[in-house]
What does this fold into?
Amino acid sequence: MKTIKTLVLASTCAMASAGALAEKTLNVYNWSDYIAEDTLANFEAETGIKVTYDVFDSNDVLEAKLLSGKTGYDVVVPSSTFLARQIQAGVFLELDKSKLPNHKNLDPAMMAKLATLDPDNAHAVPYLWGTTGIGINVGKVAERLGEDMPTDTWDLVFKPEIAAKLADCGITMLDAWDELVPTALNYLGEDPKSTDTKLLDGKVKDLLNGVRPHIKYFHSSQYINDLANGDVCVSVGWSGDILQAVDRAAEAENGVEVAYIIPKEGAGLWFDMLAIPKDASNSDNAHAFLDFLMRKDVIAGVSNYVWYPNAIPSSKEMIDEEITSDPAIYPTPDVEKNLFTFPVYGPKFDRAGSRMWTALKSGK
Ligand code: N2P
It folds into this structure.
């Protein structure tokens, strides 16, 4: 009898401490190079919540985990167009806004736009946003194309005779067909939001196949260091990541000068969203983390570190002027006119797009 009581007591204690542990943990899955050095430590120090932090560099990878139904994560960061169809698939918790007092800090105009993808902004809040343009090694590109050749054009990566001249120093592309296809469509003078599979398997595929021999690799994070070290010289990439390369090269004083370009033909604009998967075991902690990231000092620290703008207008005064005054980061109305958003793809075009991309990458 005594033994049984002790056992019961022991297991009750074990359960209680497991509960306490669960209450103090948070599993976050975010893009790589997408948070300040001290953000997580500051959150842990303020809340006592221990964060386990994993990174990805592809919406497809995140989506596969979300659709499997068991992510093991409490906070994830899909781009808004992916978020829209993931909401339809029912993978997120509805946010409890009573646990998000800093929600009022979000930019109302941006929230109104995002509500077209997430009605009532019920499932997500914006984290950071940016554009998909081109990073170049200024010196090496000028050596190959001549000082007078304009670099503010997608010709650098989409025109075979120009790409051929740059191939020896390395052209790279994001491994994200959902961004490259609209970018190619826009370059071709078509609607970047088109979901016409004839266009995809015709003009778009031909354009990409035409430059395929000149592409060194398709990857969505390696190019930051490669650009900074001078190992590649033209990368289709994300604004803040290329600006991190600019910064890393300058810090290294290695003679490499990197620049970020929003080409004159236009570039894609996207928003990355914080959301809580339905299987989250620590949803209160997830809300606490979202709320922390909507504090102006916290998110200003992130923007200062990763060179991406955020969705909290009052944080702007705490962001380095070097960043807020750069039209490639905070697009001026003139630049904005040239930006387009990506479509939300349905299953048919999604299958066609990834099939085309897989074939392209393998050189078929
Ligand atoms: C972070 C890049 C995230 C931007 N390195 C892609 N949406």
